Amino acid sequence: MRKFEDHVPFVVRLDTDDRQALFHSGDPLTFPARQVLLREHEPSSHVLIILSGWAKVTSTAPNGYEALLALRGPGDIVGEQALLSGRPRGATVTALERVEALAIDADRFGSLLDERPDVARKLLALTADRTRDSDRRRVQFAALTVQERLALLLLELIHTHGEESEDGVQLTAGLSQSELAGSVGASREAVARFLKQLRERGIVRTGRRGIIVVRPDVLRQMTRSGNG
């Protein structure tokens, strides 16, 4: 279940013919881990369809604070909002691991939407779902403390980026403490303090491999909504 973003990937929404038409419109690209796929404020000339791997979507405030907006993975489309609006890109998309994608330039993508109205409708539905999910998260987070927000985020990452290990569930997204802080609207120091508390209680382990969740049941108890 994809709980970090409450929607079905764009490619999965399309029927077979539309999906093939989409794939035939793009040129393959490969991005190594930590390479920028799309950069905030730059002009928009194409969209990307992620075929494999995961990327983070971030936006940076004037004071340098970086907020993690979303994670995008196989089947997702990125860069479509700027292309459709004709505005500069509103966020930066960065590979968390090796990412394979298809790049579709603006003219080709526009023609595809004109020729295949159902693709345009599915894209509109995707945009609505992403907006609804963003609104849901804002309302949900407004009712939670920083600790509860982080506990909920870790539970969501277990579902989307969790691998069973001998010690617990390894989170494979490779997010830094600053990125976790940006996702829950907190300072890096606040997140570091909370992770230290979780380590001392044996709920998580942290190290070179990242975060391992040992007691997800305790994280669930920390969230008022009981989600996870």
What share of the residues does DSSP label as strand, in percent?
15-25%
Task: Work out the helix count.
Answer: 9
The strands making up the biggest β-sheet line up spatially as 1-8-3-6
* Cα separation of the termini: 11 Å
Largest sheet descriptor:
4 strands, antiparallel
Order of SSEs: HHEEEEEEHEEHHHEEHHEEH
Report the principal-axis shape. Answer: elongated
Helix content: 40-55%
Report the strand count. 12
Low-confidence stretches: 1-6
Structural class: alpha+beta
Q: Give the averaged pLDDT, no decimals.
A: 89
What is the CA-atom radius of gyration, in angstroms?
A: 18 Å
Structure overview:
The protein is built from 9 helices and 12 strands. The chain has helices at residues 10-13, 16-24, 80-85, 106-115, 117-142, 146-161, 177-184, 188-200, 216-222; strands spanning 27-31, 36-38, 46-52, 55-60, 66-72, 77-78, 92-95, 99-105, 162-164, 169-171, 204-207, 210-213.
Please outline what is shown here.
The protein is of the alpha+beta class and 228 residues long.
Write the layout of secondary structure elements.
Blueprint: H1 10-13, H2 16-24, E1 27-31, E2 36-38, E3 46-52, E4 55-60, E5 66-72, E6 77-78, H3 80-85, E7 92-95, E8 99-105, H4 106-115, H5 117-142, H6 146-161, E9 162-164, E10 169-171, H7 177-184, H8 188-200, E11 204-207, E12 210-213, H9 216-222
Antiparallel strand pairs: 1-8, 2-7, 3-6, 3-8, 4-5, 4-7, 9-10, 10-12, 11-12
Helix pairs in contact: 4-5, 6-7, 6-9, 7-8
